[in-house]
Amino acid sequence: LLHLFDGASHAQTTALLLATGFLLGGPANLISTAISADLGSHDSLREDTAALATVTGIIDGTGSVGAAIVQFLVGYLAGCHPVGEGGTMVCTWGPVFVLLQVSGILSCVCLVPLVANELKRTCRR
User: Fold this and answer.
1) Which DSSP string do the residues of 38-66 spell out, in sequence order?
2) Which of 15, 33, 36, 20 is CA-nearest to residue 104?
3) Per-residue pLDDT of the chain (125 residues; tens, 9 = 90+)
4) Are 97 and 20 contacting, i.e. CB atoms less than 8 angstroms apart?
5) pTM over the 0.90 mark
6) At what angle do helices 94-124 and 10-40 cross, to 10 degrees?
7) Closest by CA position to 63, among listed 98, 17, 110, 13
8) Under 8 Å between Cβ of 95 and 76
9) Judging by beta carbons within 10 Å of its beta carbon (0-12, 13-18, 19+), is residue 96 exposed, middle or buried?
10) Distance separating the N- and C-terminal Cα atoms of the chain
């Protein structure tokens, strides 16, 4: 979509970023929940609530670290710099949207085995 909004205004860029956050934020939370639920059904963790809580904490902590890294990458990839005497900040958003697209695709790829196992389990019933 970004190429359709080349030279987008502040409002258009804001709308695109809000839409991207809305469309990625919910699935990101669902992914961590699905992984925790899948681990909860694993035989080795079923009776050990402390181990399950530890694994869930590691998953959530990894997500938080990933979010912090992405925040740094957004600032770096946008390459904002002042232009002119007024110091108006100009940013290049193309690489940021590529990062978001690649992140979304990689998330989907990582979920393929989980979805395949769930489909196999459902078909056996």
Assistant:
1) HHHTSTTTSS-HHHHHHHHHHHHHHHHHH
2) 20
3) 556 656 667 787 788 888 878 887 777 777 777 777 777 777 777 777 787 788 878 888 888 898 899 999 999 999 888 888 888 888 888 898 888 889 889 988 988 998 898 899 899 98
4) yes
5) no
6) 30
7) 110
8) no
9) buried
10) 41
